[in-house]
# Entry
Amino acid sequence: MQEPILFSWSGGKDSAMALYKLACGGTFRIASLLTTVSEAYDRISMHGVRRVLLERQAAALGLPLHVIPVAQCCTNKEYEARMAAALTIFRKDAIHKVAFGDIFLEDLRIYRERNLKRMEMSGLFPIWRRDTRELATTFMKLGFRAIVVCVDSHKLDPSFAGRLFDAAFLSDLSATVDPCGENGEFHTFVFDGPPFHQPVPIVQGEVVTRDGFVFCDLVPA
# Structure
């Protein structure tokens, strides 16, 4: 019998690869995706993707979605309180684990595990320590498709926003940029791949700059 777990879902490629790894393992069942959404913009935190596309993405994956609203300038204390409230709901259903798509940020993993321990829960990290270039290449070979929705203009040229996450994208990255954007250089939205029952139809909207980040808006097709 598969153990029910929660999955901290960003909508991006690392989440998709971690989800795929769990699905292949057959040990766990995703009881729900957990995603933080900005209250001010009604979009996925950091990624800037519209909530409606997040909902269609979850539907295409055939998975329940639990949205956690957070303030635009949310403090760690506020974030932890919102997350704890959400986890409490699922703890009542005897769910004890949360999976993440983190790859090598040790301090972030420690932070997550510390907060989960307070809830008497633990973390799963399916793609931890994977080589990021190999991971990005595998993502493409498996048939996943993603688009770059957010770029940190201090780390990557704004022209990368709105590009497909493909072999050409990887070849154009400088050696200082992680192939999976694990240092926050860029974020993606996955719209098709092995776990999807059907692609999520999207159209590129305008590109805007806000607080040093360049966002490519995606519009439901």
Notes: The mean pLDDT is 96. The chain has six helices and ten strands. Helices lie at 13-25, 51-61, 76-91, 106-118, 132-141, 167-172.
